[in-house]
Amino acid sequence: MAADRHEQRLTLAATSVSYVVVILDTSIVNVSLPPIGASLSAGLAGLQWVVNAYTLSFACLLLTGGTLGDRFGARRVYMAGLAVFTAASLLCGVSLSLAMLIGARVLQGLGASLLVPCSLTLLNNAYPDQGDRAKAIGYWAGWGGVALAAGPLAGGLLVAAFGWRSIFLVNVPIGLAGIWLTARIAATPAGVDAAERHLDLSGQIAGIVALGTLIGVLIEGPVLGWDSALILAGVAVSACSTIAFLAIEAGGREPMMPLGFFRNPVFSASAFVAFVGTLTFFGLIFALSLYFQQERGYSPLWTGLAFLPATAVVTGGNAVSGALVKQRGARLPVLLGLAVLAVGLLGLLPIGRATPYLVIALPLLAVGLGGGLVTPAATAALMAAADRTRAGIAAGILNTSRQVGAAMGVALFGLLMAGHAQLGLGVRIALLLSAGLAMLGLLAAWRALPSCRAPCD
User: How far apart, in Å, are the Cα atoms of 424 and each of 30, 204, 285, 416?
Assistant: First the structure.
């Protein structure tokens, strides 16, 4: 028993490291966007690609990452992903041009797509008890919350002291520590009949084209013009490839995204909630990073400090959510978190160039708390609804939902900001849309997630 507990703690530590570097990278990058833009001559669209090159490759390849973990063993694929992510972070730090930085960000996303679903598979295998597993996922997400909270402030400090390149180089020692920890975990066997599973290459290609062209249209539309031939072609290609992707997944023998998973209402609602949570949070961080620095003249350091009301409470929300899931099930923290999130988003509507900071800080507290409550609960609900022998694929779908939400959030918030002379007006429109999505997520969770009035063991 002591050996099992030791293995569980080691697995939790190793997988938390992966989540820390993934979330830290996203939150650090946002506060550094204006310095990156000045250094590499990047406009708004270029800065969106700096963020979304990572989230796009992450989202597009996550399902394949989960399948590879099921086929070849979660620990082996996890270590490979962490090694790629660490090397790519080094390349980001030494990039000499915008194109080189974007390319290195794509490689970071590739590494993250391998390690993140496998980290959840490792946790799923290490904690067979549902209650213990929910608590472990709460800790895992909590460390991600710590990274999210530390990211903007750490990014501001690093940029002020060492320049923007340091925000990527900081991932290198963390990644190396994660590789060392993972090497001490017992090797995980491949899934049942794993040797017979194959990669869904046609579905993978269709998914990459569908999502990549959609995000490209949203980012480049304001730059090239919505009536340009390239944008219209992008819309057509995205629509056709989306239809092709759904057809391939519905008829394939070994689809990377089994559509049958979505027949389970708990699974579908949890995936949608995860999508909404990241769309709102990361879109807001992207927009407010530019708002604080371009509209209000804040430095990267002061921008990091300005985010503290939102980021500092995420960790506490994660911890409370994990405890609530164990005692009452996922429904209560999801509903409560989405409601608080929507209130916070609506509370930010007065935002403008002369808005007192206190008027912004109080709603940011609600946004951070709501997001912190939602993430572990939605994760636990989705993983509990999936067959444990297909945990890698389920984790891949969950994290794909999250990363697609993040990419869509950055693209949509950037689109609305590009269409208005004042950042504040575009941000207000995006806030209204995000609050509406949060309420849709609340309705879906209300109808699908089961209530649990006794301890959920």
Answer: 17, 38, 13, 10
State the first-to-last Cα distance of the chain, in angstroms, to the nearest integer: 19
Domain ranges across the chain: 2-183+256-447, 204-255
Q: Let me know if 430 is exposed, middle or buried by CB neighbors in 10 A (0-12, 13-18, 19+).
A: buried
Cα 395 from Cα 151, distance rounded (Å): 24
How far are the Cα atoms of 24, 119, 126, 140, 369 from residue 9, in angstroms, in the given order? 22, 13, 9, 11, 27
Which of these, 78, 70, 1, lies nearest to 388 by C-alpha position? 70
Rounded to an integer, what distance in angstroms lies between the CA atom of residue 237 and that of residue 317? 41
Model confidence over 362-400: pLDDT tens digits? 999 999 899 888 888 888 888 888 776 677 677 778 878
What is the percent of the chain where pLDDT is above 90? 20
2-183+256-447 topology per CATH? Growth Hormone; Chain: A; (1.20.1250)
Q: What is the mean pLDDT of residues 78-97?
A: 93
